[in-house]
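Quick one before lunch.
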Amino acid sequence: MLDSGTFLRWMAAMAAAVDRDADLLTELDSAIGDADHGANLRRGFTAVAAALEEEPPRAPGAVLVLAGRRLISTVGGASGPLYGTLLRSAGKALGDEPEVAPARLAEALDAGVAAVARLGGARAGDKTMLDALQPAVAALGQDRPDAVAAAARAAAEGAAATGPMRARKGRASYLGERSVGHRDPGATSAALLFAALADATGE
Ligand code: ADP
Ligand code: MG
Ligand code: MG
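Model of the magnesium ion complex:
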């Protein structure tokens, strides 16, 4: 079972991962976007970590709602509202349950992913963060003891699979065919999010 401590560690691990890999994310975004994805997420998750440290919520859902709100209020780029919506919607779905099983988290994240798809209008194969988020959430929902590790793997594979895709949403879509051959920055950061979850649960 995952409690609020696990969720706090998850967000702290994500902040550390984004800080560590900010240059890589920005490099990916410089190929098919505007070279700010690393800076956007670093600003966002640094603010998330600070807010959670200042006043740690007592329930998993509240951790995600606070994180999502912070991302929306601190990140100017598309990724802020999108990740913010993902976490806030998932947090709302968890309500005030004190502990959640991975499969329950998968259900909540599924609602978050649906909200991201509504907000951004993207679908699987459009070369966005959804291409890592969707397979990760599907793997997390499977009834297996290593579901979190499987989700992290699925997210990494989903991010790698965006390389040959042609972007149909976001800035990268302006490049059309020229977006092919570059990994999507948002799918790459989504893989970091699930690697951070695995870190937090010790898988
Ligand atoms: P911006 O494009 O505003 O500079 P970022 O560089 O921070 O924002 O984030 C870009 C990432 O956001 C993309 O790599 C993609 O994964 C994701 N993204 C952009 N638009 C959409 C959308 N409509 N739906 C889902 N994800 C999107
Ligand atoms: Mg950008
Ligand atoms: Mg930008």
